[in-house]
Write a structure and sequence with these properties.
about 220 residues; alpha/beta; Rossmann fold; 5-stranded parallel β-sheet
């Protein structure tokens, strides 16, 4: 039997080692490499064999996970990518789906769910746990792709905090980095990002950054809207 080759990217050492050990003990999987951050591609070059599936922690500390995901997709185009998170919100789901993700695992799910999700994604399915949202995965994909209308900058009114978050997103900071910079909780940052996306009628933080680039910054380097 051909085993499913897995690259595991998780910055919690204990969790990373535990997941790898459990998957390798299953018999159907082979965790060919593990990494805590963006060094995963270097790990893969050492191994020399591309993985079938990447398990990607959506809340990495050192690098924005979706940027790493984009890099992995370019370097390992046939590979399927499954995100892992503890308590993802709707914005996280939409961003991941829009970026081309294949599946999602809630970290405290039973191990049987991990096994089932990895096997189904490896077989070409799109898998999203039903407990995450009341909509089907295909409906989320459709929403992510089809929504978003032309934005008139003069009609947008941000709070001062939302303006700060917009500027930091445009600089490439992830939610945890923004939280540290502004001395607020990551959950609060997610709430601001959700509100910003609604006001801009966009789907992902990458689109927010593109919008800022298009509209420009003022002389102080701050988004002028």
């Amino acid at each position: 039997m051909t085993k499913i080759k897995i690259l595991l990217i998780e910055d919690n050492h204990l969790l990373r080692e535990g997941i790898a050990a459990m998957l390798n003990g299953q018999g159907e999987f082979n965790v060919i490499s593990t990494s805590e951050d963006g060094d995963s591609l270097m790990h893969m070059k050492k191994v020399g064999t591309p993985p079938d599936v990447v398990l990607l922690d959506l809340g990495l500390e050192k690098i924005y996970s979706l940027e790493l995901m984009s890099l992995l997709q370019k370097e390992l185009p046939p590979t399927k990518i499954i995100a892992m998170d503890i308590l993802p919100d709707y914005v996280d789901i939409i961003e991941f789906v829009k970026a081309g993700g294949d599946g999602f695992i809630i970290k405290n799910s039973p191990f049987s769910v991990w096994v089932d999700t990895i096997k189904r994604v490896a077989d070409g399915e799109k898998v999203l746990p039903s407990v995450m949202t009341n909509t089907l995965f295909s409906q989320i994909v459709e929403h992510a792709i089809t929504t978003g209308r032309e934005i008139k900058p003069e009609s947008i009114q941000f709070t001062n905090r939302e303006r700060e978050v917009v500027n930091l997103i445009a600089k490439g900071l992830g939610n945890k980095e923004i939280a540290g910079h502004l001395h607020i909780a990551t959950f609060t940052v997610k709430s601001h990002v959700h509100n910003i996306l609604e006001k801009l009628e966009l789907n992902t933080r990458l689109q927010i950054a593109a919008f800022v680039r298009e509209e420009g910054l003022d002389k102080s380097g701050t988004f002028a809207v």
